[in-house]
Hints:
The complex is a heterodimer of chains A (494) and B (71). Helices cover 46% and strands 12% of the residues of chain A. Chain A is built from 21 helices and 14 strands. The mean pLDDT of chain A is 93. In chain A, helix 12 links the parallel strand 8 and strand 9. By secondary structure, chain B is mainly beta. Chain B has no helices and 7 strands. Chain B has a single domain, classed as CATH 2.40.50.240. Chain B starts with a strand and ends with a strand. A 7-stranded antiparallel sheet of chain B has the order 6-1-2-3-4-5-7, with no helix packed on it. Chain A binds chain B through residues 41, 48-49, 196, 281, 284, 287-288, 293, 295, 383-385, 388, and chain B through 5, 7, 10, 18, 20, 23-25, 47, 63-65. Iron/sulfur cluster binds next to loops of chain A.
Amino acid sequence: MSVMTREETEALIEEVLQVYPEEARKERAKHLAINDQSVEQSKKCITSNKKSLPGVMTIRGCAYAGSKGVVWGPIKDMIHISHGPVGCGQYSRAGRRNYYIGTTGVNTFVTMNFTTDFQEKDIVFGGDKKLDKTIEEINTLFPLNKGVSIQSECPIGLIGDDIEAVAKKKKEEIGKPVVPVRCEGFRGVSQSLGHHIANDSIRDWVLGARDGDESFSTTPYDVSIIGDYNIGGDAWASRTLLEEMGLRVVAQWSGDGTLSEIELTPKVKLNLVHCYRSMNYISRHMEEKYGIPWMEYNFFGPTKIAESLRKIASFFDDKIKEGAERVIARYQAETDAVIAKYKPRLQGKRVMLFIGGLRPRHTIGAYEDLGMEVVGTGYEFGHNDDYDRTIPEMGNATLLYDDVTGYEFEEFVKAIKPDLIGSGIKEKYIFQKMGIPFRQMHSWDYSGPYHGYDGFAIFARDMDMTLNNPCWGSITAPWKKATAEQQEQVVASA
Amino acid sequence: MPKVMLRRDRDTGAMTLYVAKQDLEENVVAVQHAGPAPWGGELQLADGSKYFIEPMESEPSFPITVRAKRI
Ligand code: SF4
């Protein structure tokens, strides 16, 4: 299908909204929009970060997922207790593919699940004692842990446990940081508030730990990577580029990160923010308290990488600026070869995305480098400031959908007929069964890294592998194909 | 009285007002007392809304978090 005009897109939204009852229709209409680059403020055309409607199928997570799963979870040398019933932690265990180096169960703990395993009696009588005992046990069994965080699940807030008091007491007893996080799942409308709560708890309980301690020797080229969760090794692929241009990466937040890296971050010269949504809060705080500037960058696809490297270098002296040019030049031939190989196979293909924090806008450049076009995008839990940043990236008259419902997404796909969809595991099998190539863009579909130049090569290969897979030609069963052909013949002969 | 953060954008030099709770990130186009002393008062934003912050003795260093009233 050719590119849709503004009117066609409008009609499509109108049509999809028809099934809802009046009130729901009004509400959902605000979340669906047609991109218009002339709009300066997203709030004029799209509403976001609002409660999902009861009864629709939403793809969002909860605040606990935002804190434990996203921000705190990847800090590898701390133990994160899923405080409450066992399910929240167990069903999400190790699903995010934050890679890390270390010996799991000895000095790193990311893929393990620690929980206080609430039972009925803990709900009735309170779970503070159990939490106390759990921390005690953890510290005995895993003495090399550097600290503990308490990630509250829903019941903790409901029964009113005082986890702060337990945390303070245990901190004294075990002599390590114990951080209570009030990220009960019911807070906020999505995982986004969990990110914010987690940021605030890092600010209040961890970040100031080394204030006034000058024993860490700094260099003028210290930076930190903020909001890179090392999915499939992303942060490593980014880090090598920064190091190659002459910078020193002091901390990774939080993929493959450690507690001491977090504590040292206030000593850096510049914070590099990849996922703005989940970690802008702490970056803003560090700018105010420690005077550390921050900037957003994008390491998807050579065009955006080169742009970002130059922008990063502009904060430093000529040595780093030359370094950036050197890095760009060094990878030029390699990326040219990748593009030469895959662009002819992917040229003109149309993509629809529906992802989380930064990818709905950040990956657009990488697709464009391969000659593909993103015709629809949306955020699970984005805010206005995310859409502000998205509108200039998207073509006019393309579709924007916020917190899209299962039904809407399917209908949009049926009408727009994209060549590829990028979203999460919950959408994957529906669309594959509809015969549309699909990539999981949260976990990189068990592949990755996609960041950096090395990541781009993998990204291109994966997109080609998915799109041009011969299986898409075999979606219709042979006997059904035969009847379809016969019918056509009948029609033709009649 | 929401807490707002005022910061200067490095690229454009423009002052922005940020309210985390409302996802508001907007350029400040006019300040009633533009300094050097006093600094503050009514802030006019690019989207037309106005905020009031207690005038400060002199222009503070940015970014800074202050309490502001929407007017
Ligand atoms: S909403 Fe509550 S119960 Fe559900 S996963 Fe989140 S914390 Fe657990």
